[in-house]
Write a structure and sequence with these properties.
Length: 402
């Protein structure tokens, strides 16, 4: 049984965190630190954007060099992307400073950055701030850490759950940031997850890949994949539960389900907080030949600016939805497709259209909307989450650097 509990990354045993202002931003918190009291297994999924920020490149090296990790240091306000050799040196400087403050090896620290692309970090301010952040570490510091990595976010994104791991209670906690430039393809969206379960590194990576595919890779705000997208999970085993060592066992399946629960919850928060968003939209594609087919169809709908603007305008323009499925690249018979908004059937088979504009308008006027698309070609299904596209999104991104 998976039960939500209070807290984020410091809900699991043996984790502390902090969030401070070091001067990257003018006034708001801008430096986060998450620490495990003991060495932890680590896993990560990273952006597939060909343009990758320095922290992403450093994370790849960390995963090659180390199997245990002690912490994660994150700055907001500057992405440290497209900054060349100096950017790489700055990312490594952050790792080394955090390691020195924690008494750890530099290869045991993940580094992450978020904010404006193409500007150098004020690295002196960050290096000076890291010991301050280390001194502020607390078991109650998860909320401050979540706040300090926000950019255009309007609220903190945290979730934690407790579950049974081989007969012993274990906890998973997470925090995320993201509001715009959201169409993760992992692998400016960041998520950091902690757990006091003991999970072998290769199993942790496997579980994270699968859970990410069913959560962060199924959301879209604006169709843009960031240069900095990163999801990291640390597992320190301090719950005392027997280690998860076999992916065929019940304990692994339970752990994966709990991890997916946390990541889905964080994903939905990101969509809810989409830049300029006024509506949360769930897209359910059913009757697909395979899950991959359902995902491709749902992703095309979620990324369609025409669909998203129609939803914002509360216009039951089902043709835009069918057109998006049509260019998704899947093989299907358009005449078999049925589309519904909430509990209102909109399009029936053979292009039969019998619906009340008033009823459709009532559904689309709600803050949370469910769109169903039945392909009638199989038994597989998939869900995707997105938001509407408003004039406010344009205003926010037209003035991002000013």
């Amino acid at each position: 049984m998976i039960k939500e509990v209070h807290g984020g990354v410091t809900a699991p045993k043996g984790f502390r965190a902090s969030g401070i202002h070091c001067g990257v931003k003018k006034e708001k918190k801008d430096l986060s630190l998450i620490v495990s009291d003991v060495p932890a297994s680590g896993a990560a999924v990273l952006t597939t954007n060909k343009v990758q920020a320095a922290p992403v490149l450093v994370a790849k090296e960390q995963l090659r060099r180390s199997t245990t990790f002690r912490g994660i240091v994150v700055n907001s306000g500057n992405a440290n992307a497209c900054t060349g050799e100096r950017g790489m040196n700055d990312a490594w400087a952050m790792a080394k400073a955090a390691a020195a403050a924690l008494g750890a090896d530099p290869h045991e620290v993940f580094v992450s950055s978020t904010g404006v692309i193409g500007q150098y970090l004020p690295i002196g301010k960050i290096i000076a701030g890291i010991p301050v952040a280390a001194g502020a570490l607390s078991v109650d510091g998860g909320a401050a850490a979540a706040e300090a990595m926000m950019t255009t976010d309007t609220f903190r994104k945290e979730c934690a759950v407790r579950f049974d791991c081989n007969g012993v209670p274990a906890t998973i906690g997470g925090m995320a940031k993201g509001s715009g430039m959201i169409a993760p393809n992992m692998a400016t969206m960041l998520a950091f997850v902690t757990t006091d379960a003991a999970v072998a590194p290769h199993l942790l990576q496997r579980a994270l890949l699968r859970a990410t595919e069913r959560s962060f890779n199924r959301i879209s705000v604006d169709g843009d994949t960031s240069t900095n997208d990163m999801v990291v999970v640390l597992a320190n085993g301090m719950s005392g539960a027997p280690p998860v060592t076999d992916d065929a066992g019940v304990s692994y399946q339970t752990f994966e389900a709990a991890l997916e629960y946390v990541l889905v919850a964080l994903s939905k928060m990101i969509v809810t907080d989409g830049e300029g968003a006024t509506k949360f939209v769930e897209i359910n594609v059913t009757g697909a030949a395979t899950e991959e087919v359902a995902v491709r169809a749902a992703r095309a709908i979620a990324n369609s600016n025409l669909v998203k603007t129609a939803i914002h305008g509360e216009d039951a323009n089902w043709g835009r939805i069918l057109a998006a499925v049509g260019y998704s690249g899947i093989d299907f018979d358009p005449s078999l497709v049925e589309i519904g908004f909430g509990n209102v059937p909109i399009l029936r088979k053979n292009y039969t259209i019998e619906f009340s504009e008033e009823e459709a308008k009532r559904v689309l006027a709600q803050k949370e909307i469910c769109i169903t698309v039945d392909l009638h070609q199989g038994e597989s299904q998939a869900s995707f989450w997105t938001c509407d596209l408003s004039k406010a999104y344009v205003d926010i991104n037209a003035n991002y650097r000013t």
